UniProtKB/TrEMBL annotation:
PANTHER family, A to Z: BIOTIN SYNTHASE (PTHR22976), BIOTIN SYNTHASE, MITOCHONDRIAL (PTHR22976:SF2)
Note on how the cofactor is bound: Binds 1 [2Fe-2S] cluster. The cluster is coordinated with 3 cysteines and 1 arginine. Binds 1 [4Fe-4S] cluster. The cluster is coordinated with 3 cysteines and an exchangeable S-adenosyl-L-methionine.
Name of this protein: Biotin synthase
UniProt keyword annotation of Metal-binding present: yes
InterPro entries documented for this protein: Aldolase_TIM, BATS_dom, Biotin_synth/BioAB, Biotin_synthase, Elp3/MiaA/NifB-like_rSAM, rSAM, rSAM_sf
Assembly information from the UniProt record: Homodimer.
Pfam families registered for this protein in UniProt: BATS, Radical_SAM
Gene: bioB
UniProt record similarity statement: Belongs to the radical SAM superfamily. Biotin synthase family.
Domain of life of the source: Bacteria
Domain Radical SAM core: 49-279
The species this protein was found in: Limimonas halophila
Pathway listed: Cofactor biosynthesis; biotin biosynthesis; biotin from 7,8-diaminononanoate: step 2/2
One of the GO biological process terms: biotin biosynthetic process
Lineage: Bacteria, Pseudomonadati, Pseudomonadota, Alphaproteobacteria, Rhodospirillales
């Protein structure tokens, strides 16, 4: 395959046009010697469509374990023997305390994740109440990761003030049966449609390093381009002891992770591309480079794994010459100008 012209890919993305499948694969298959040129081209798109600011997000695992699903990557699944803390959904005061902490960290959004196949009606009742309180008493945007969601449940959450729903595609449709058998790829797509129909913004991404091929990553990113989520969290697998993937050869290197992020920026130029779970483990010393294609990060941990301290992330952002963006997205800032786990991913 001929060497790609990264500048051509950047110009295509800035124009809002889609790369060809061959061009997308060429990014993932490009030589490590060309990595800096690739990142420069991806940053051209990021700067044009999203500016040079960084969105910081804080994630809480508000209900842990006790899940009937068999997602092979997840420490909370029914087939996992990982030593994790298990607990029912938090009470209101725990939610509010963590929401205030997120705001104190200059987080753009407070993200809440619940383990399980999907919420019960009682859980929806409780979440509607607490989301309304967070909006009124804390004043921070909210995102919820809650598994498979029915249309009426999505409508109730929207009415309560929820801004965004996270539900990741996680991988390609072809590869999905290799990572989960208790629900289907189509089930996940249906949840995203229910959320979108209810007027919720979408947060949807995937997990890289689950034995998928380059073609699977391209398929996933092209499908995300069709869905047009506002936010695209990309997680890089941490093999967790006690899960079916504990001994998987993820094939991940810091350089490959950067290529995936660059491709996501080319295919989703206006999205909030987030370097999410596993960045600390898989990107290692190259973490700062991730913010040339990506414009968003989580701080202080994920669902069952620890993450980089907020102070360290803030220093990294400052050292890059970037700035944390805390203005609401509806205030007309970079969203328009240029806008579920490695045991770490939202469900």
């Amino acid at each position: 395959m001929p060497e790609p012209s990264f500048d051509t890919l950047a110009e295509t993305a800035i124009a809002g046009d889609a790369l060809t499948r061959e061009q997308a694969l060429s990014v993932l298959e490009s030589s490590d010697d060309d990595l800096l040129a690739l990142l420069h081209a991806a940053y051209r798109v990021r700067r044009q469509r999203r500016g040079s600011k960084v969105h910081v997000h804080r994630l809480s695992n508000v209900k842990s374990g006790l899940c009937p699903e068999d997602c092979h990557y997840c420490a909370q699944s029914k087939i996992s023997t990982a030593a994790i803390e298990k607990y029912r959904m938090w009470n209101d005061e725990q939610f509010l305390k963590e929401a205030r902490h997120a705001k104190d960290l200059d987080a753009r959004r407070y993200c809440m994740a619940l383990s399980g196949r999907g919420p019960t009606n009682r859980e929806i009742d409780n979440l509607c109440r607490v989301i309304s309180r967070i909006k009124d008493e804390v004043g921070i945007d909210t995102c919820l990761s809650i598994g498979l969601l029915k249309s009426d449940q999505a409508e109730r959450l929207k009415a309560a003030g929820l801004d965004r729903l996270n539900h990741n595609l996680n991988t390609s449709e072809r590869h999905y049966p290799n990572i989960c058998t208790t629900h289907t790829y189509a089930d996940r797509v249906a949840t995203l449609a229910n959320a979108q129909d209810a007027g919720l913004e979408l947060c949807s991404g995937g997990i890289v390093g689950q034995g998928e091929s380059n073609e699977d990553i391209v398929d996933m990113l092209f499908h995300l381009r069709e869905i047009e989520p506002h936010s695209v969290p990309l997680n890089f697998l941490i093999p967790i002891e006690g899960t079916p993937f504990e001994n998987i050869d993820s094939g991940l290197t810091p350089r490959y992770c950067l290529k995936v992020l660059a491709l996501a920026r080319f295919l989703l130029p206006a999205a909030d591309v987030r370097v999410a779970g596993g960045r600390e483990v898989n990107l290692r010393s190259l973490q700062p480079l991730a913010l040339y294609p990506a414009n968003s990060v989580f701080v202080e941990g994920y669902l069952t794994t620890d993450g980089q301290l907020a102070s360290e992330t803030a220093a990294m952002i400052q050292d890059l010459g970037f700035e944390v963006e805390i203005e609401p997205e509806d205030a007309g800032t970079s969203e328009e100008a240029g806008a579920d786990e490695t045991a770490a991913q939202p469900a």
